[in-house]
Amino acid sequence: MTERDTGSAKVVLGRTLGFLDDPADVGEAESHRFEEQGALVVGPDGRIVWSGGRADLPDDFARLPREDYGAAIVLPGFIDAHVHFPQHRMLAAPGVDLLDWLKRFTFQEEARYADRTHAEAAAEAFLDTLIAHGTTSAAVFSSVHAEATDVLFSAARDRGMALVAGKTMMDRNAPEEVRDEAEQSARDSEALIDRWHGTDRLRYAITPRFAFTSTEAQLAACGALVAAHPDVMLQTHLAESPGEIEEVRRLYPWSKDYTEVYDRFGLLGSRSLFAHGIHLSERECARLHETGSVIVHCPTSNSFLGSGLFDIDHVGDRRRPIRLSVATDIGGGTSYSLLATLGEAYKVARLSGRRLGSLRAFYLATLGNARALGLEAEIGSLEPGRFADLVVLDPCATPVLARRQELSESLADVLFSLMLLGDDRAVRATSVAGERLKGKAP
Asked: Which CATH number does the domain 10-77+380-438 belong to among 3.90.950.10, 2.30.40.10, 2.30.30.100, 2.60.40.1120?
């Protein structure tokens, strides 16, 4: 992996917040490091050299140029653990349910990505929109077209982003324009792995859409790819809606449940991301825990498509906790903003009689998602050695937020207001590897 020269070293000042561990495991007080008068030193390679209180800034860095964000909060950049590149303009496309939505809108839209020119323009718009919302890394589904995936990786490399992505694989139950063939799809994925995995800050994810759109031959090919490339990710969907689950039961009558379909083909594991996981049995949860697999909670998508209410305590049961991450799931999701996504996750938890505190929510969107993607040594915290992928949040960005802060008594209160009332207007600046891609110099 090459380093990206972002120019001169600098000091970033503000209220700094970085997470050290999951508040659910260590308690809120021990989960994070917050400095009211904080400082970060960013080296010329875009990595954090030092972080701590402004008063403790070593003399060696005293003369470096400074970006002072005052009372704004400087955090690790948001990480989106599940998002669809070819659905980037599909927000609020209505459907009766998941399968109807796919047939009416999604497959037609994704067919456009056979056109390289369309894919190039879309990649620019998609990544710029992520950055505008404070998202600096993501796990991304491309379309079935290998060339569109090339285009996406190239655009992410130009921005210096840490991106995990893969060509969608589906060889049945979809229009011809967006179907592939099991063997050719595997060859295309292999070529993309060889070309992009480990290039700069890019990683590959083997990406069967879901069991409904893949034959057994294709899932077997995915398993062979996983076995041949144990350092790549795998991403797909699992137990999102009742209708989907019923169709998978019909297509795979030999399986005990949906999870066993993926298990049979060797797709469970510590590098496997399963979006949704709303309707999981106890047996499925135990098996996902045993294999170290990750469930990606997509609250705005689940609500929009009427798929169901995710039970965070069921998935996180202490007897067999499943690794958890959070995502926008654009375009089934209704906002690019991880702030809005966290707010929806809080509401869904409340509707299920559960609680998601603001500190844990922000942990999930930063270090938690970095761990889910296996990238915690590179992103997700403000510890030295990590890339300076940063989002700067203004707690008083709008009049409503400013008035709300008059009532805040703690950091948790401020974060709670941001995730319930904030959106891209609260994102004052976004930096990737130390280079500011949104916002003006303070």
From this structure: 2.30.40.10
